[in-house]
Design goal:
By secondary structure, the protein is of the alpha/beta class. The chain is 37% helix and 19% strand. The protein contains 10 helices and 16 strands. The strands form 5 sheets. A 6-stranded parallel sheet has the order 4-3-5-6-7-15, with helices on both faces. It has a 4-stranded parallel sheet with strand order 9-8-10-11, with helices on both faces. Helix 1 (10-22) crosses helix 2, helix 3 (96-105) packs parallel to helix 4 and helix 7 (220-233) crosses helix 8 (245-256). The protein is elongated, with a radius of gyration of 20 Å. 51% of the residues are buried. Bound molecules: alpha-L-rhamnopyranose. Residues 56, 60, 62, 138-139, 181, 187, 218, 244-246, 269 line the site of alpha-L-rhamnopyranose.
Length: 353
């Protein structure tokens, strides 16, 4: 017997998932032997494994796209059930109680985007002792506390592309600021560290001065206010990098109706569907991102390979991530998903996420 999840549209799906979270171990399962692509010969036929995704926070449109890919990957990889649980805000310890509940429920694979690399460690350690495999994605946990980390793009590359974009957009000189997510987020801090290093060491950027780093906590209202505050505190600001989809959208919204529209540059990491109006109205020239759905998709297959023992997270391990093909585990248990794309007025209409 093969168990499949119900699948609905993106918004409905997430709402459904939250409801499932409330129902804890009562996973969305429906008996259906015919809808699997291989008629029941998939790994699911041999087991009843459960996978749970714990994103940084639930109310984030980026997370919705990542989880759409995760849901698809979980089905194709043959998990008997999958669910999403998680906090509504991305504070450091907000995920601990969710991890503990998964340990209690005997979940086989926990996929987590860590709000803080260390705050989740004890709970993840307990989950592992109980037999769970831990896949970090998007934002890494301390490597001692997980089996693999599925990274969207090489972290340094993410930083360099944003530094290059802002330098181009401000004509190579002037004051810039960074508007980040939460202050503890592993992914944000790694990208910011590489940006700072690049600004300090690349002679092309010698006339660019980073004057502020602020945190919108991946909260739309706070990000909007931080953008406003930046302009008040730094009247000579020429550009803002926001390496978070929530931050860049809120900053764009602020700039678009302000006197700074078209004068203060804004780049970073954004969802094309959220950024489209701001590219079209001239607030934003270019920004970057990868395909978020692929992140969740690869994470699900990595989880399956871990539970089957075909990988352990060691350097050189390989596994097949469905339609995305073979993936290799690199040093430190790192799996890279794909290259970033730069979006602008010419290409943005080709993307729908
Ligand atoms: C936000 C989150 C996430 C990050 C993206 C780019 O939605 O901070 O962790 O990867 O932006």
């Amino acid at each position: 017997m093969m168990l499949n999840r119900k699948s609905t549209g993106q918004t409905g799906r997430l709402a459904g998932m939250v409801a499932v979270a409330a129902a804890a171990a009562l996973a969305l399962t429906a008996c259906n032997g015919a809808s699997g692509s291989d008629g029941g010969t998939s790994p699911a036929a041999a087991g009843d494994q459960k996978i749970t995704f714990i994103p940084k926070q639930l109310n984030n449109p980026y997370t919705d796209v990542v989880l759409g890919g995760g849901e698809k990957g979980a089905t194709e990889a043959g998990f008997a059930s999958s669910q999403v649980v998680g906090p509504l805000e991305a504070s450091a310890s907000s995920q601990v109680s969710f991890i503990n509940a998964e340990t209690q429920a005997g979940t086989n694979v926990i996929v987590i985007a860590a709000n803080d690399p260390d705050a989740v460690c004890t709970a993840l350690g307990e989950a592992r002792s109980a037999g769970a495999k831990i896949v970090a994605f998007d934002s890494d946990a301390n490597p001692d506390c997980r089996d693999v980390f599925i990274s969207q793009v090489v972290a340094k590359e993410v930083a360099l592309i944003q530094t290059k974009l802002i330098a181009e957009q401000i004509g190579g000189s002037g004051e810039i600021a960074i508007l980040s997510a939460t202050a503890n987020a592993t992914n944000q801090n790694e990208w910011i560290k590489f940006m700072e290093e690049e600004l300090a060491s690349n002679p092309e950027y010698k006339d660019i001065k980073l004057v502020a780093k602020v945190y919108g906590d991946d909260n739309d209202t706070k990000s909007f206010q931080e953008a406003q505050g930046l302009m008040q505190a730094h009247p000579n600001l020429k550009g803002i990098i926001s390496p978070t989809t929530v931050g860049i959208a809120a900053t764009a919204r602020y700039l678009s109706t302000s006197e700074y529209k078209g004068k203060v540059a804004l780049t970073g990491l954004g969802l094309p569907n959220e950024m489209r109006p701001f590219v079209k109205d001239g607030t934003v020239k270019e920004f970057a991102l990868w395909d978020p759905a692929q992140l969740g998709y690869v994470a699900a297959f990595a989880g399956k390979a871990l539970t089957e023992g075909t990988i352990t997270g060691a350097e050189g391990d390989t596994f097949t991530a469905g339609e995305l093909g073979e993936r290799k585990v690199e040093k430190g248990g790192l799996v890279i998903v794909g290259p970033p794309t730069v979006f602008n007025a010419e290409n943005i209409d080709k993307y729908d996420f």
